[in-house]
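Materials and Methods. Structural model of RNA-guided endonuclease IscB. The 433-residue sequence of RNA-guided endonuclease IscB from Ligilactobacillus salivarius was retrieved and submitted for structure prediction as follows.
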Amino acid sequence: MQNRVFVMNKHGKALMPCKPRKARILLRDSKAKVLKKEPFTIQLLYGSTGYKQDISIGIDSGQRHIGLAVTSQDKVLFQGEVELRQDVKNLIDTRRIYRRSRRNRKTRYRKARFLNRIAKKKDNWLSPSVASKVNHNINWIKRLLSVLPKADLHIEVGKFDMQKMKNPAINGEGYQQGDLYGYQTVKQFVLARDNYTCQVCKKKGGKLKIHHIIYRSLGGTNTVNNLITVCSNCHTTKNHQTGILAKWCKDKKKVNKSYKGATFMNILRRRLYAAFPQAKFQYGAWTTLQRADLDLTKSHYNDAVAISSIRKIKAKPTSIMMFKQFRKKKRSLHEATARKGRKIPNVTSKRNAKNTRCAKGFWLNDYVKIKDSNKKGYISGFSQSSCYIKDIFGNYLTTSDRYKQVALSKLDRLSHYNNWSKQEINENMYQMN
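The predicted structure was written out as tokens:
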């Protein structure tokens, strides 16, 4: 089963998604036209009855990835994942260096300005790196709502509750979930903090357990600083007593890591509350239980399926729609450091000369296929009559073991994209990456 295609009627109102085969037939017979590419949506050119069913949207919000899912009547109609940009802060820092260096070189008097201070900006101001991620979370939810008829919206706003970390005894109307919710909240906090990686053998995935660094029998507590993530291979009776686990806990008595991700989710949660007051919100502690009941593996798109409140799955796509934003321009006026392949910085080249957007009919971010092979990817840069090609995961696709470049004459263009890369991949390929 493949992901469904979103459909709009000729008046611009959303209809039920259809199968890809039906969409191809409608486009072939000129009964529909392509309306959007992210997500792929067609618009009918003739009248339709507009029969609709109950639909639910599941959103696994986050600072690195967004899980998307659309379910209806025990069926998963669409599942996907959006990878957000993580380079905004570094790019802004680089721009700041260029600006200050330029001002130091040109020492003319600059009149003081007081209206561009952060403290004078509006109350809803966010730093550009945070604002970028928050806006993408909100915009992708709006994209799904715009192509679906009156869907119920379910959003996960964090893996754990920060308020629970401050007061483990909190209860009442805020939770009404009992002791199990508290246990799952702390557990999800530790798993997210350790990036779902065993802290002893550094292996990711598999069966993970929560281990006390200082045993409770020796006065240890259930606080997050006394808990670590370990895999089932390391979490054995022998390792508890004299093995590698006991040695690791002896060397490291507590775990202190940045809670930057949790802070971002607190910011995002408030923005989502304001943007979608009609949505149903939940924490990752309950998502874990729902995903276990559905017998789904851990992933962002499977989390979104569980969040959508589906109780039983009769049909589910075997592929995932992956979205990733592509940056097409290098905006710096000059280079502060030499690029790879150059001994000195290229300070004489103009901005446009360093931004080759097209060559011989191919454009940046075009979806291409290497002839006489099954390799498909996106053009990430040009080098005279050749180019660099990457897949949706950022891996280079080449024709030889020696060079990363691929000649443009060996390519066939499959589709033209602008700033978003989109690719439908198999679940096995997703797990490998």
